[in-house]
Sequence to fold (648 residues):
Amino acid sequence: MQSIQGKGARKTKEQIEYIIKQEFILEHNKAYGQIIREERSKRKLSLEDLSCGIMSWTALEKVEKGKAQWTKLAGDTLMLRMGILPEHFESLSSGEDLDRWRLREDICLLVPDEREQAVAKIQEYRETYGKREPLEEQFLLKAEVVLMLLQNMAESGEAWRRDGRACPRVHMESAAEAGSRIPVKNGTAARVVLEKARQALECTVRPGWEQQIGKLVLSPGELEAVLLVSAVLLAGGGEAKEAQEAQAWALWQAVWEYPGSHGWTEGAKMLILPQAAVFGIRLAYASGRFSDALVHMGISEEDMAVRGQEALELLRRNGGHCHALPLLDALCGMRETLFGEAGCQPGYPEQIRRFREMFREIYEWFGYPGYRMWQGISVDNTRDAGSVLKMLRTFYGKSREEAVYDGDERVVTPRQLEKIEKGIHKPSYENYRRLVKQYGKYGQWNMPLLETDSLEVLKLRQEISKLIEFNEWEHVEWEIRRFRKLVNPEYPKVRQELLFFDAILKWQKESALQESLEMMLEALYCTVPDFEGRDMKWWVFQREEIIIASDIAELYHKLGNLEEAKKWYEAVLFSVEQNCARTDTVNCGYDLVALGYSDYLGDVHSFDYATDLNEETLPKVLLFYKINSIQYLLYQATYVAASSKKFL
Fold:
């Protein structure tokens, strides 16, 4: 079968110019700022309320107008403070921003079990990055509080099992839980830890926050800092024990209620409620029986079981595993009858036990720490600006000497461009925009997945994708019809999405593989140039392009054109790997490409390569909050291994 170039696969000069014009009409960075402004206004938040502790209100005003450059950490936290997961956007960051994320992730994977290594990494972070954002300092202080609590536990000679009974040694499950069962007998030590916990929170929150948690604008990471203060208060003891306990439980209750009362999306709730549930359950039984303080607050054992179930189901609905194993441990320690009283379906306790064993096996298999910190933001939707510039330059066959010009004017020197490409230097907002303009790229530092300034449209697009994943075709078609009424099909990425939806329906509902392939190709070429005469592995595949290109590869595979399938799989894998080299992670969509390629490799009996690919992909997928595709990857890994033995 010959390679297919579907309708629209070749673009005329006029079509390319039209696309560029459309890109100019809707400046992506302004769309991001517009969404922040609209959501802030909807929540009746002032510029000062939202920006407090992160940036000045004037800087936020520039962000909203699309005139400011900001870091990934600050930009995502602005969204998270409004309860919006930044998954609707694709971001570009500097090499340094991503290096900082990588080092923070290393700390997360060491805390709490590898104390000495964690302390060394925290020190390395402080020494490497003397100038830090308040959010970075908050993260480091939270990690230090957890480690101090663990040290106090070791010095006291006491430890607790996951079910609340004494035992010689324990892994601590989460940052907040680290203090939930640690008796701090030394009053001075308790005050020192409490002071550091407060210091962590007050990196971004004004003093005097205790009585007004519900009125503040906080992100999941900041709410975690509140939980840490609560943990230290409960661990402190001393003459004011009862007052501290009452204050600690009031803080915990405020954290639990916060996401619901502020209209957070489920994705944002997932970053705090599971940890809050773990913390609450552990503390409720810290004395060996259910806490009297909770009873006085009107919270029963059944209520706590309901909250634990709510947190677990939140993770299940959203394919998440943030604090999943600690939560399952906590739930397994509760009386089984509580779940019947809480209205759970029969057999729920057994489901919990099976889930716990499954997660333990997965984590052990890949050497992944199931008990770990989480840093609050993910980079699966982020690319390194330097890598993007290098890839575009290579794709178009330009030398650095040629690529430094914006028309007739030089933007940077070739030496400066080399340092930018290597991640040594950070390009300015304006210089990056000018450098990519020559390639027809106008997406800037934060760009929505569709050309729209409507968060509702972006949410609907995500909902359709989720429905497609679960094969709910009637519902899919209904939502697509609603989607069409809300978008402008003249925009390239919108047209691409509509063609993609139609191609999926052709494929899955009608089994019309050939027609689906042609439509997929047409969809892809809405936003990418003609690959003829160029090595497409150097194209910067963005999230939707990754998904469409992997579907094109799979369709070639199903149609028997193995040569084309191999070409597409390898090109997309290479492209994404180039983008992710700096953080050793994967971009959103990479797991789907790896899964399809593994299937292809099995069919051509390249079992060793397929096994290696699966074993490399799975640990990287585990680094992120969502693990939607892990069941398929695990199945593929075991299937390929079994097929290999059978074939041999």
User: Anything to note?
Assistant: The first strand starts at residue 89 and ends at 93. The chain is about 60% helix and 0% strand. The beta strands are 89-93, 382-384, 405-406, 409-410, 446-448.
